[in-house]
Amino acid sequence: MQGSFEVEVFFDGECPLCVREINLLRWMDRRSKIRFSDIASPTFDTSKVGLSWKALMDRIHGRLPDGTLIEGVEVFRRLYAAVGFGPVVALTRLPGISHALDWSYKVFAKNRLKWTGRCKEGVCSLQQPAE
C-alpha cells in the first residue's frame, strides 16, 4: 500500500449522505491520515480489498495500514480519531453509547438506499461498476 495513512475508508460515492460526510472528513484531514476509496468508481477494484462489492455496499468498511479490515461504527471511530477527535471517540466505546451507535448504524446501513432516494417503486437495486 502506498503512502502513510491511519485508516482507509471504502465509501459509496453515489450516496449523497455518505459523500457529505466524506467531504467533511477530507476537509478535516489536514494531516492526510485518511485514504479515501470510492467503491462506486469504475476504477475501483474489489479484488484489492478481499471483499465482494455487495459486502462493501451493505455496510461501511475500512482498512488499517497492516491490512486489517474493519467495518461499521469502528470505521467511523478510526476516521474521527485520525482527524483529531480521539477524546470524543473514546466516549463512543462506553457500553451504552457503543450499543446505541451499533444499533443506529445497522438501521442506517439497512435503509440508506431508500433514505437517499436510490430506490424506485420500492426496489433498491444497484449496478455494480464494471471492473
How would you describe this structure to a colleague?
The longest helix has 21 residues, at 95-115. The protein has 131 residues and is an alpha+beta fold. The chain has helices at 16-28, 53-58, 73-82, 86-91, 95-115; strands spanning 7-11, 34-38, 61-63, 69-71. The chain starts with 6 loop residues before the first strand and ends in a 16-residue tail after the last helix. It has a four-stranded mixed sheet with strand order 2-1-3-4, with helices on one face. It is built from five helices and four strands; from the N terminus they run βαβαββααα. The chain has one domain (7-115). 18% of the residues are buried.
Please report which band the strand proportion falls in: under 5%, 5-15%, 15-25%, 25-35%, 35-45% or over 45%.
Answer: 5-15%
Distance between the termini: 20 Å
Sheet with the most strands: spatial strand order: 2-1-3-4
Number of separate domains: 1
Oligomer: single chain
Count of helical segments? 5
Helix content: 40-55%
Q: What form results from the Cα inertia axes?
A: globular
Unreliable stretches, pLDDT < 50, 5 or more residues? Answer: none
How many strands in all?
4
Write down the Rg: 15 Å
Largest sheet: 4 strands, mixed
Kindly state the mean pLDDT as a whole number?
89
**Secondary-structure element pattern, one letter each:** EHEHEEHHH
Instruction: Determine the structural class based on helices, strands and strand pairing.
Output: alpha+beta
Secondary-structure map with pairings?
Blueprint: E1 7-11, H1 16-28, E2 34-38, H2 53-58, E3 61-63, E4 69-71, H3 73-82, H4 86-91, H5 95-115
Parallel strand pairs: 1-2
Antiparallel strand pairs: 1-3, 3-4
